[in-house]
Amino acid sequence: MMRQIEMIERNQCAVSGTEDLEIIDVMFSFPIYMGCVDTLEKDDIFADAIWSISKSSGVIQLQNLIPLSLLYQEEHASGVVGDIWMQHHRAFADFLEQQKPTSIFEIGGAHGILATEYMKKQTVEWVILEPHPAPIEGCPAKFVRGFFRGKENLPEGQPTIVHSHVFEHIYDPRGFVQCLAESMDVGQEMVFSIPNMLEMLRRGYTNCLNFEHSVFLTEDTVDGLLSKFGLAIKEKKLFRQDHSIFYSVVRSKEIKPKVDWNNHYERNLDIYTKYKDRYKDLIAKFNIVLTESQNEKKIFLFGAHIFSQYLIFNGLDVSRIHCIIDNDVNKQNHRMYGTKFLVESPMVLAGEDKPIVILCAGVYNEEIKRSILENINSSTVFLEDQL
């Protein structure tokens, strides 16, 4: 029996503030947490993911939200493991250095990787505000436990405000930008990184929208929010075509809001519909292969994260899946939430004859494939998210 939880209702658009949401998709009984746990399977919690679109803004968003205490019950190491993430942190550190900050206040710095990379090149006073600090060894930043509440959190001296892959986790992006702007002095700067959600959804990346990423924050939507609350864009830069967008903005009295929420309803609905149709066809294709593949070939599913959960809870036949594999040692030997599967190292592929790996990890696919083929088992056969 599915355990009932009290959801947070979103009855107006998280961007425009209007009460004009229409339901476009429901994923029934989806696991609320996308990490690994040591608890019993019977204790897992599931909820309906109800996706809506605003008629006024065209922004896709979850209509019912998970209480934060349940959603972030444990750290699941997103943004920590992998070459691409380290490339991101270093590229963002370079972008930040170009803005010449004299001191930095980072919201949601978690592990302090960005601060560590930045201060390999430039020493600066750096404070991280984080509700669940988990600093890596040698991180030179000062950690303060807590949530951002506005000016009361900001140190004196107009530090440059920094956040990286935090914005997309905010339940109220409109309120977040307004709070930031009202906390900043004229001329104070902010530098941040967000996922390139428009390109991610176009390419069918399942880590784009989920219980944690509850709002489809496209570049044009973010630009509109910044403009509305007096934050002028100094510079933007892409990190890869399908990963992140870096922003440098400044609090300004001169900017005149140019907000047009009405252009993207049809575009966003079309992208989402194609995304859903893509996975309906892809999972059907995977299931045929799983049924027809020779019984002696072991089949593995890569990714102890939303990548696997999305496939499983949208109809993937798991009867032939041997286990879930993941490179993160902190996930190995633990159970993937919402499933029966224990997570193992990709090293379990070593010695297998042409093992089959289902791989739908978006931008990380090539990095994962290369590591397995070059370092573990060159005979591995991949079923990928390509039709």
Structure description:
The chain is an alpha/beta fold and 387 residues long. The chain has a domain of 169 residues: Vaccinia Virus protein VP39 (Rossmann fold). It is built from nine helices and 19 strands. The strands form five sheets. It has a seven-stranded mixed β-sheet, with helices on both faces. β12 and β13 form a beta hairpin. The longest helix has 28 residues. The protein is globular. The two termini are 36 Å apart. The mean pLDDT is 92.
Which helices and strands appear, and what pairs or packs with what?
Blueprint: E1 8-9, E2 21-31, E3 36-37, E4 46-54, E5 60-62, E6 64-65, H1 68-71, H2 83-98, E7 103-107, H3 113-118, E8 125-130, E9 142-145, E10 160-164, H4 173-183, E11 189-195, H5 197-202, H6 219-228, E12 231-239, E13 244-251, H7 265-292, E14 299-302, H8 306-312, E15 321-325, E16 335-336, E17 343-344, E18 356-359, H9 365-375, E19 381-384
